[in-house]
Design a protein that fits this description.
The complex is a heterodimer.
Chain A (H helix, E strand, L loop, with lengths): L1 H31 L7 H31 L6 H6 L6 H6 L5 H21 L5 H24 L36 H11 L1 H12 L4 H33 L10 H26 L3 H24 L13 H23 L15 H33 L7 H24 L7 H24 L12 H35 L3 H11 L1 H21 L5 E6 L5 E4 L2 E12 L3 E12 L2 E2 L1 E9 L3 E8 L1 E2 L2 E5 L5 E4 L1 E4 L3 E10 L6 E9 L1 H19 L5 H7 L17
Antiparallel strand pairs in A: 1-13, 2-3, 3-4, 4-5, 4-8, 4-9, 6-7, 9-10, 11-12, 12-13
Chain B lengths: L1 H24 L5 H9 L23 H13 L4 H12 L13 H25 L10 H7 L3 H13 L7
Classes of the chains: A alpha+beta, B mainly alpha.
Chain lengths: 713, 169
């Protein structure tokens, strides 16, 4: 299978190279119109078919690696280092992305898959898709070349000869940190996001090369960009949840360089999704949009470089290797191509309209982009400053949470503020009266929240000293309330008009309103999701924790909960040994209750029963790698998470040491993400056209839509 | 009337800015909160990559000793700066959870705000150039250059016609 996999990668490389060269030649011939013996259209089509065949080849390589994992082929170095016989089946799949070579193969396969879909859809716009396909093949050549020359996934053990050298009986096993359900889905999601930005990048570069109308390529790539953004969003939040549930430190975001690396393209991608609306509606910011998507793609490469080259210390970083140089060279080439194309074609990117007022939707988009880019710079700066410091001063410094909390959090809060302000401003210019009308309710909500929070004890000056965390939380709650009020008021205003026009109730009118402009109202739903996430993040200012050694029937108090130790025991299976404690949880004097999943009714309806809450935090030691791993017990309710960690045993007494956290509002973060996902799906659904909308409205009541509801995103 | 309203809001904004500045200038004073504040400005040196006050490894070889050192330093009457410098001298600069505000480290703090300010200025200038602040709009001749030549326009129109669909899927 190793030979088959290696050949597949080699064949895929040859096909990608052919796609690149033949595609480039054909497009050049088409652009110049020079007569040649072969038809450029046919040459371009052979290039496209080579791209499709390349996908089949790289799929073969990915299949070969998975097959090798499942067949425990420990003659392959990668399999030996990242798998073992007792590894559960889902984690055998995870072995594909648990090491450098495998994750690069996953990258190449996902890129091949995106390219495959793109090439199948080529009839949408043959010429533009040919450009995009050719550019994607250039990126694919790079990744396949790395797989062939620098990080071969099918390399055999040093000195291994089939039938002569014995194969090791078992592998070293998968990194215990990766043996968690989310690790089966978090990396592929993140990679789908990372790799996916190659597609809008390819379209942007291709469109610039062929001087394609700006608004067309943006419409063509809108779905690609949104889907990619959604994958990246899910990937980032799944990673946060994994960090929360597995690392056992009670937090979900540690400003780790690799976390930062995934967040940077998300910020620029978000800026791009907003600023393209300016180009679509007003023909403005054409150069800006092109550079935003170029930067986003370059940042995905930078993130991969940070993960793989060991430039910065990180819990995610793989061992230092020579492939960092490959990435640096590739990034330089990409940047050079982008600059060259931009300089050559910049005349095509002149703005078509002007701004009429500082207080307008246009300027809010500009400020939104400014803040998103500033946030991106802050994170990039914080991530790279240790390297810069070492270069300048000769000593490395740590840029940790205190620095980000002081620099990045204010920028983030300002961004949330703009999330609410932007949609309230009309295109072109806003009158003073309109501003007053739109902003009164949010301002009332803001100050009401401040007063309520202060009354409930969210006071930054409590006890005579100032707490910046509580202050930020207070600002976060207040701004979130204002933004939420603004968005809900927008929905209600529109739904009220529809309700009056059609006689429907408010809920049905809101549904119809959303369907009439899914992009706009889907966007609002995403903003609501962001606000809910922010509220959840603000809760971290009030985290509490307590740690105690717990003998049988001893108790530990945190917040309203009392934990009683009713047993501590050990267990083992083929994969790991574990120790865990059983803790009965009381709320006040009563046993706390929780929902337990029982099964499905009619195969789809989940059935739960209410049971007394017992938590079992666990510590595992994996046999193959002899590495320990924490399995946190979490009881999540809307107010907070009760988060319990089995830290180990006291060597003197043999008693378990338990650390309990009470983390307010964490559940809101995950709920907010669900709203963001829902909002994105809504925004992806095509809006009702006037014709189909008319079919859904009773003829007698059908009246033209009010101008206030038209357009606007 | 409008000017008066504007002036009022400016005064409110200035007062808010001042109160925020005062809030930030206030600091923790008692020993307990100083201990908590300082252990969140230091890193554990065991390699766990966590703040000293949040290192939760049972049997961590370093954090208990460092926490004791911190308590002793506070009890000895050293100020925050002296304590942090003492830790940096003993364990290296990486023990500090954030760069200092001296020498090259100061750049770490200034650069984000400087870049933000420059970008803000740039955005305002751009809006001014585009006429959003009532500034000089582009001359008609400039606008004309934004519109393509007739042949180019024809080419763009042809592309738009030939690719009538508006979405990729």
């Amino acid at each position: 299978m190793a030979t088959f996999g290696s050949f597949c990668i080699l064949i895929a490389l040859v096909l990608a190279a052919y796609n690149l060269v033949a595609g480039a030649v054909a497009l050049r011939l088409l652009a110049t119109g020079r007569p040649v013996p072969i038809s450029p259209e046919r040459l371009a089509d052979t290039a496209r078919r080579a791209g499709i065949a390349g996908f089949v080849a790289v799929t073969g390589a990915a299949f070969a690696l998975i097959w090798s994992v499942f067949s425990n082929d420990f003659s392959i170095t990668y399999i030996l280092e990242h798998s073992n016989r007792a590894l559960p089946i889902p984690y055998k799949f995870a072995a594909l992305w648990s090491g450098q070579e495998g994750s690069l193969l996953l990258w190449a396969w996902l890129l091949g898959t995106y390219g495959f879909v793109l090439r199948l859809l080529h009839k949408t716009d043959v010429r533009l898709y040919a450009y995009a396909g050719t550019i994607l093949s250039g990126i694919q050549v790079f990744f396949l070349a790395v797989l062939v020359f620098a990080a071969p996934p099918f390399a055999l053990l040093p000195g291994y000869a089939a039938g002569v050298t014995p194969v090791p009986a078992d592998g070293n096993g998968l990194n215990p940190l990766l043996q968690y359900p989310e690790m089966v889905i978090h990396p592929p999601m993140l990679y789908l996001g990372y790799v996916g930005f190659s597609v809008p990048f390819a379209f942007a570069l291709g469109a610039l090369m062929m001087r394609y109308p700006g608004e067309k390529w943006i419409r063509t790539t809108r779905v690609w960009t949104m889907v990619t953004w959604l994958f990246l969003t899910c990937g980032i939040f799944l990673g946060m949840h994994w960090a929360y549930a597995v690392l056992g430190w009670g937090g979900y975001w540690g400003w780790d360089p690799v976390e930062n690396a995934s967040f940077m393209p998300w910020l620029t991608g978000t800026a791009f999704l907003h600023s393209v609306m300016m180009q679509e509606r007003k023909g403005m910011m054409k150069s800006w949009n092109v550079w935003l998507i170029f930067s986003t793609f370059l940042l995905t490469l930078l993130g991969t470089l940070l993960t793989r080259a060991g430039l910065v210390s990180s819990v995610h970083a793989f061992a230092q290797s020579s492939i960092g140089t490959w990435f640096v060279v590739f990034m330089c080439i990409v940047l050079a191509v982008c600059i060259f194309t931009y300089v050559l074609q910049r005349g095509h990117l002149k703005t078509e309209h002007h701004m009429e007022s500082l207080v307008s939707r246009e300027s809010s988009f500009l400020f939104n982009n400014l803040v998103l880019l500033a946030a991106c710079f802050v994170i990039l700066w914080g991530t790279l400053f240790p390297i810069l410091s070492e270069y300048v001063q000769g000593t490395k410094v740590t840029v940790g949470a205190p620095w980000y909390n002081r620099v990045a959090v204010p920028v983030g809060l300002f961004l949330v503020f703009l999330t609410g302000v932007g949609p309230l401003l009309p295109w072109r210019a806003a009158s003073f009266k309109a501003i007053k009308r739109n902003f009164v309710l949010p301002i009332i909500a803001l100050w009401a929240t401040v007063i309520v929070c202060l009354a409930l004890g969210v006071n930054p000056w409590k006890g005579g000293e100032f707490s910046s965390g509580t202050f930020y939380a207070l600002v976060g709650f207040a701004v979130s309330a204002a933004v939420l009020t603004a968005i809900v008021a927008e929905f209600l205003r529109g739904a009220g008009v529809i309700s009056r026009q059609t006689g429907r109730n408010l809920i049905a009118a809101t549904w119809l309103l959303t369907r009439r402009n899914t992009r706009r109202y889907g966007g609002y739903l995403i903003h609501i999701g962001v606000v809910v996430v922010v509220v959840g993040l603000c809760g971290s200012a009030f985290n509490r924790s307590v740690e105690s050694e717990m003998g049988l029937h001893s108790t530990l108090n945190i917040g309203p909960y009392t934990l009683e130790q009713v047993g501590a025991t050990q267990d083992s299976n083929l994969n790991y040994n574990s120790e865990y404690a059983m803790l009965d949880v009381y709320k006040g004097s009563q046993r706390a209750k929780t929902l337990e999943f029982e099964g499905f009714q009619f195969y789809v309806v989940p059935i739960f029963k209410i049971v007394p809450l017992q938590m079992t935090p666990e510590k595992r030691v994996y046999l193959a790698s002899q590495q320990p791993q924490t399995m946190v017990a979490i009881h999540s309710v809307p107010e907070w998470d009760l988060y319990v960690v089995y830290e180990g045993t006291n060597p003197d007494t043999g008693q378990p040491i338990i650390k309990a956290f009470l983390n307010p509002l964490v559940g809101w973060i995950w709920f907010g993400v669900a709203v963001i996902v829902f909002g994105t799906f809504v925004a992806l659904v095509p809006s009702l056209t006037p014709a189909t909308a008319a079919l859904r409205v009773p003829a007698a009541k059908a009246v033209p839509m009010a101008p206030a509801l038209k357009g606007g995103d | 009337m409008r000017f008066r309203a504007f002036s009022f809001w400016m005064r409110v904004a200035a007062s808010l800015a001042l109160s925020v500045a005062i809030c930030f200038s206030l600091g923790a004073t008692d020993a307990g909160s100083r201990f908590n504040n300082l252990n969140h400005r230091l890193m554990c040196t065991c390699g766990c990559n966590e703040l000293l006050g949040e290192c939760n490894h049972v049997g961590c070889p370093d954090s208990p000793g460092e926490l004791n050192e911190l308590s002793a330093a506070i009890a000895s009457g050293s100020n925050d700066q002296q304590i942090l410098q003492g830790f940096a001298a003993k364990y290296g600069a990486t023990v500090l959870a954030a760069p200092t505000t001296h020498g090259f480290d100061l750049v770490a703090w200034i650069a984000p705000f400087a870049v933000f300010a420059a970008a803000l200025m740039g955005t305002i200038l751009l809006i001014y150039r585009w006429g959003g602040l009532g500034g000089k709009r582009q001359a008609p001749a400039d606008v004309a250059t934004a519109n393509p030549e007739p042949e180019e326009q024809e080419r763009l129109d042809r592309i738009r016609r030939e690719t009538g669909t508006d979405s990729g899927f």
